[in-house]
């Protein structure tokens, strides 16, 4: 089985990685949309997804990583820049067993 680090790198280069764009969303709207997105990944048996939250006013970039870490469906998260609060994208791996 391929390790998560490799899967995240592949997802970063693959334009076909499923994604959700949260620009313009409130924190509550973003959480609801992420819940739906994660459920969809699980339903479609897709392990990695891309969450685009932007840099904007930092509300989403500060809250989304914590929300994902606490989510039951999430196995791991990855920020291409290494810092969740400064990046505009987070990759998420869901538990598909």
Structure report:
- Helix content is 40%, strand content 20%.
- It is globular and about 35 Å long.
- The protein starts with a helix and ends with a strand.
- The protein has a four-stranded mixed sheet, sandwiched between helices.
- The chain is α+β, with helices and mostly antiparallel strands.
How are the secondary structure elements laid out?
Elements: H1 4-13, E1 19-21, H2 27-43, E2 48-52, H3 59-70, E3 74-78, E4 89-94
Parallel strand pairs: 1-2
Antiparallel strand pairs: 2-4, 3-4
Using the alpha-carbon principal axes, give the shape.
globular
Could you spell the SSE succession in H and E letters? HEHEHEE
In percent, how much strand structure appears in the residues? 15-25%
Order of strands in the sheet with the most strands?
1-2-4-3
Number of helices: 3
Give the CA-CA distance, first to last residue. 13 Å
Computed over alpha carbons, the radius of gyration is 12 Å
Structural class: alpha+beta
Give the fraction of residues assigned to helices. Answer: 40-55%
């Amino acid at each position: 089985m391929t390790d998560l680090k490799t899967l995240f790198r592949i997802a970063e280069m693959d334009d076909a990685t499923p994604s959700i764009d949260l620009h313009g969303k409130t924190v509550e709207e973003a959480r609801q949309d992420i819940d739906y997105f994660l459920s969809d990944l699980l339903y479609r048996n897709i392990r990695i997804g891309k969450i685009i939250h932007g840099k904007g006013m930092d509300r989403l970039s500060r809250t989304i990583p914590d929300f994902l870490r606490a989510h039951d469906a999430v196995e791991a998260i990855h920020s291409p820049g290494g810092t969740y609060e400064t990046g505009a994208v987070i990759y998420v791996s869901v538990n598909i067993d």
